[in-house]
Amino acid sequence: MKRLTWALIQLLLLTSLFETGFSVTTRSRGKKKVPKEPKEINVCEVDVKQSLYCDCDSDKLRNATDAKCLILNEVRVDDPAWGHFTSQMYLQKLKFMARMPNWLRQIPVQLFRQLIHLQVITFQDASIEEVKEYTFYNLSTITEINLSRNQITTLKMHSFENMKNLTAIYLDENRITEINRDTFVNLPSLKSLHLSVNNISTLHDKAFKHLTSLEELELFNNQIKVITADSFHGLRKLVTLDLRNNLIAMIGDRTFIEMPSLRELELDKNEIVYISDKALDGMKNLRKLRLSKNKLVTLEPDFLSGAPGVNFLDLKENLMKTMTFDNIKPIVTNLYNSTSHFYLSGESLSIKRPNLLHAFNPLTTVGAYWRPKHIGFPVL
Ligand SMILES: *[C@@H]1O[C@H](CO)[C@@H](O)[C@H](O)[C@H]1NC(C)=O
Ligand SMILES: *[C@@H]1O[C@H](CO)[C@@H](O)[C@H](O)[C@H]1NC(C)=O
Ligand SMILES: *[C@@H]1O[C@H](CO)[C@@H](O)[C@H](O)[C@H]1NC(C)=O
Ligand SMILES: *[C@@H]1O[C@H](CO)[C@@H](O)[C@H](O)[C@H]1NC(C)=O
Ligand SMILES: *[C@@H]1O[C@H](CO)[C@@H](O)[C@H](O)[C@H]1NC(C)=O
Ligand SMILES: *[C@@H]1O[C@H](CO)[C@@H](O)[C@H](O)[C@H]1NC(C)=O
Predict the structure, then answer these.
(1) Does the CB atom of residue 201 touch ligand 5 within 6 A?
(2) Which of 37, 57, 187, 196 has a CB 3.0–4.6 Å from the CB of 220, allowing a cystine?
(3) Which stretch of DSSP H or E encloses residue 52?
């Protein structure tokens, strides 16, 4: 018998046919009824009495590995519906979507204890406001947790702890306001953490200190005002840090010293007026530095000396008034390379001749990627 498609289920819901008593349990029609024996509820079979319906890669008992479940009614954490997942204990990928925001308010922690093969778990469009202590704890098979697009404001301490195979956490598009210390603990495989599009104003000191394997940290579109070396304590393996579209006003001495592996630093669209000459100390591996759309008027002469490998520098759309050869001296030979990028623009920019232009002269001859139109006047 042909399986009902996901689309049809959604259509049924939209037209409220369930409420008018339309029966979708057609697959059992014609089969001999075995009386009295309580039938095990298979979460992958449509049952009008259930508060959730899962579209699975197999409908057979204990055979599905991938399920997408639609929440059709309010389900509380103590709802018996969660227990029915023993009928599909081999699930590896599981996604929940709430049709109405209030129908799922908490993460059903006990569910994870039953699904001992689970690798990827996703909750979407639910009204989860808080990730409680030890929600994701000791679950060694889980590799990816996706909590994007819920209504999370608070991550309690120890909410993600002792997960030895966890590689990625997605928490973007929520309303998280701060990142506390000891929220992410003992996650030795965690490579990427997504916290973009939230309302984070405070990164507490050493908030990420246990994330010694992390390579990618996304924090764009938040309200972060202050960053210091302590904000990034412990991120020894971090390769990319995305802080675009925050409210950072200044970069003090040695801010990034805790992240010696960093290659890409994105600081566009902040309020930066000042970068100390020691701000980039210790950034030997930095290649890409984005600072466009800030409020920089001048730069300290030596501000790039801690990051001599930079070959991509974006300073467009600042309020730059002067730019001298000393500003880019530590990286100027990198810019001769045809794979390098250097962007600069400004209404009132005056480039101190002849030094800076002298530096760029070889660029044009070796055909470097050089965009004079981003400079307020023609190059030579
Ligand atoms: C599901 O059933 C198929 C065919 O009977 C079998 O080959 C497969 O191993 C089963 N999968 C699981 C996870 O039990
Ligand atoms: C995480 O979930 C959101 C919402 O369901 C989805 O849009 C996004 O693609 C997911 N991310 C990944 C990496 O699977
Ligand atoms: C967590 O797992 C460890 C072993 O990996 C075990 O010793 C400990 O008892 C577990 N803790 C809980 C609360 O399940
Ligand atoms: C953790 O991941 C490794 C490598 O992918 C795998 O061999 C191992 O079985 C996983 N551990 C658990 C408990 O799933
Ligand atoms: C973000 O946080 C500020 C306080 O820091 C609060 O006033 C504002 O309402 C929050 N915005 C959202 C969308 O939650
Ligand atoms: C140019 O840069 C690339 C990588 O960015 C590097 O592999 C190459 O060796 C450089 N070429 C020169 C001439 O320095």
Answers:
(1) yes
(2) 196
(3) strand 52-56
141 lines ligand 4 (CB under 6 A): yes
- With CA atoms as reference, report the closest residue to 186 among 169, 209, 170: 209
CA of 108 to the centre of ligand 1 (A): 27
- Which pLDDT does position 1 carry in this prediction? 33
pTM, rounded to two decimals: 0.86
Contact 90, 118 (CB under 8 A): no
pLDDT for 302-344, tens place per residue? 899 999 999 999 998 898 887 777 888 898 888 777 778 888 7
CA distance 309 to 178: 33
From the CA of 199, how far away is ligand 5's center (Å)? 6
Q: Exposed/middle/buried for 207, CB within 10 Å: 0-12, 13-18, 19+?
A: buried
**Ligand 5 lined by 177 (C-beta under 6 Å):** yes
User: Hey, CA dihedral for 15, 21, 25, 31, is it positive or negative?
Assistant: negative
